[in-house]
């Protein structure tokens, strides 16, 4: 084991000091590179499940999980950074006791985690995770509870990513698209989800006025996607107006431009020509 002197207590002290030094150096490197503040911050479990929309949970029992999938905590985000390096000496005594037990080969209880997608959040066992990282373990035993959510956790890396998930969840509650349609509508700027939600609801209101009957959100979402979104996206491809945008971003752009230029709800060659001229 790296740094093994043959004196377990001294080695455990060295393990802690090494972990603290790495945490300080990581903060310094992040400051020098001017990376976002949330890069080394542990993801807070409650904020993640709120952004994704919690629908339930189920116990999966004892499993072996990879340490690199543990990215957050239920309530200990201040004591450790994203890689579970201690952020102060406050946890030193307990940390070193666990490191000593590990070095002596003593039995260490499994940790307790929540699973959201492929990510894990520690409910109990933060020090054990930190020590396992410091001793370069790859896996750890854990009691796993899977949390079910309305939208998936794919793409979450940092705390700043949660606003994208949160606004996308709200959009899908307002515009409940089916599977393939749901996957097709993607934005880089999270605020675009709010703008598109307003646009779809306005489209649905006009549709109900035209047909003189009430339509629920599911019906409006399905009809908007088939009758409005897909035809417009096809025209945008034909007119070479997608560019570097996603299809949804291009759609939202031309919707705004359509009202600014023509102030009409129709789509025809005149509108496309006007939009192409303003590209």
Task: Describe this structure as you would to a colleague.
- The chain has 279 residues and is an alpha/beta fold.
- The protein has 2 domains: 8-157, Alpha-Beta Complex (Conserved hypothetical protein from pyrococcus furiosus pfu- 392566-001, ParB domain); 175-278, no CATH class.
- 51% of the residues lie in helices and 15% in strands.
- The chain contains 10 helices and 6 strands.
- Strands 1-3-5-4-6-2 form a 6-stranded mixed beta sheet, sandwiched between helices.
- A hairpin with a 2-residue loop joins strand 4 (111-116) and strand 5 (119-124).
- Helix 2 (45-52) packs parallel to helix 5 and helix 7 (191-211) crosses helix 8.
- The N and C termini lie far apart (61 Å).
- The relative contact order is 0.11.
- The model is unreliable at 35-39 (pLDDT under 50).
The named CATH superfamily of the largest domain: Conserved hypothetical protein from pyrococcus furiosus pfu- 392566-001, ParB domain
Mean pLDDT, to the nearest integer, reads 84
Helix segment tally: 10
What's the helical proportion of residues?
40-55%
Main β-sheet: number of strands, strand sense, barrel status?
6 strands, mixed
